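Handoff note, outgoing to incoming analyst
You'll be picking up this chain. Sequence as last confirmed:
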Amino acid sequence: MTGELQVIGACPLDCPDTCSWVVTVRDGEAVRLRGNPDHPFTRGALCVKVNRYLEQVKAADRILYPMRRVGPKGAGRFERITWDEALEEIATRLRSIIDEYGGEAIWPYQGTGTLGCIQGEGGVAGRRFWNVLGASRHDLNICSRAGRIGLTYTNGTGGGMDPEMLASSKLIILWGTNPLTSGHHIWKFIQEARAAGAYVVAIDPIRTRTADQADEHLPIRPGTDGALALGLLHVVLEAGAEDRDYIAGHTLGWEEFRKEILAYPPSRVAEITGLDEETIRALGVRLAHTRPTAIRATMGLQRHSGGGAALRTIACIPGVTGDWRHPGGGISYLTVGDSLLKPDSRYDLLAKPVRTLTMTRLAEGLEDTEKPVKCLWVYGANPVVSTSDQTRIRRALSREDLFTVVMEHFPTDTVDYADIVLPATMQIEHTDLHVAYGNMYVMWNEPAVPPPGECLSTTETFRRLARHMGLTEPCLYDSDLELAEQLLSSDHPYLAGITVDRLRKEGWVRLNVPERFMPFADGFPTPSGRLEFVSERAAADGHSRVAGYVPSMAARTADTPGVAEKYPLTLITPASHTSLNSSFGNNPELRRRAGEPKVLVNPADAAARGLTDGSPVRVYNDVGEFTAELEISDRVRPGVAATTKGRWLKHTPGGATANAVVEERDADMGRGAVYHDNRVQIAAL
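Most recent structure output, in case you need it:
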């Protein structure tokens, strides 16, 4: 190939923005990557991480060939082998495991390393193959599950506002979200609103980059957001500002929910949340009298044992104020709560029902001796870094009787425990389809360059393995374009007119929704067709019928004798500005910018422990411990410690990260993770 080409693609990473990008290819080599200036959401910009994506593609430590372990598990010592050798060994081991233990002894552990609908989590790549083998089902619940279920009890869906509509908002509440680090493209629309007089409030235990730029920051105690939602609504009721017409015509269960609101006056909420009563009242008054109000809440908010209930209750606010009737009003969590694509689950390929293994319970699943897991197949994931209870996971992965296969780009901490490592393509090297969860666009990713070395796409790897195992099910051999056409053959009205041919020509297409999208103009997809303050589905699932406040474990035990004294600090682990989950954790320049691991504590908490700024400290609880450099900062409120997630163990002093102290425990809904709900103590080393 000679000359220069501009190839339109899409960022595959676990971010709401799903940016459209343009790859410049010169003489067969990708020489430049930039945000697509023609895309209405990306508008030519990429984040600080993805701007270095081509460095990652060409990195010296990229895995280019299949490898077999030659040292002890965890040591990361491998020898190069051929694809035929790798596939033959895998096929032999899988057949042996199925013969002795049954297909359910195989756990296909897929993560959100790519959200692609062909190659990644978006389409559950590989599920057809696993169903033919009768493998256990993988419940990929780690990210947004609790909040999505909570929102569904209220609105019938986890979907909501088009974030572009924030440009029309007059009050914007950024609740537990830091878009200037995680999904910065929404900020352009917030700035448009501010230019027209909008007021921006950040509710977050940390004064983040975003909070710095907001008009007001409320440093709430972690896990008390549901109580604040009720307290703000209490002020709305005091002002007589509830939208009675909207409540009467579009909601269910108002009188019961009203009683719940009245039980949370600002004085009580101040005690729960740690906020000043005057601050709560002032924001409540602003909420009462400002239309339209938009609430932007993302995943960090719901990573605690009351997270689902918190989102459920926050979602009730637009029902009380009537904001859903106004363009620029409502709540944005996911843009589309359920998959628009034709389901590719293909459970019809299963010979019999199989068990489900839960992503957030990896250690528990690997420790099961009654129905043991004998093969763990990891792709799009780095669980040693990204999953709770790090020490138990490392111990479980060390089992010699556990056959572990990892498909990867780089030698991650999880790769170190693999028996076989398979080299995977990166986004500019394969075909994929993307539906954003933070905007209203479908994106096509055309491969720009051939894969390096012997890297294969996820789909091609499973096609070759199926052929090697002699599997005859025809759908296992569908091409990537056939898979894309099948996914887009859904009858969902949002996809009307969106075809593979159109996407390949245009690069991206807006969903078939109005420019000024009002998601619930024709009612809510709940059993009643209304916004439900009271949900019989929630009651049937074991939750309260009425939306309300469920405290996090950390908040619930704040006054429990013996608990708060032993572990008085609540640790939260937000996203880093220089990595995305654990992606880019090996990039030298981004690692340099991130610096050494730090844990932030408030000056009062540091003084109480005799800790000095910059000193090495030990962060610990009954689950585990990690070490970091102390940073004394008023960016965190008293009682809170904060460190960023996603660091690789092999690049971290002490060889452990924050997930060493995160308990393998469930949120209130959907078995979501509890990364922001852990009590710790900090001591000098």
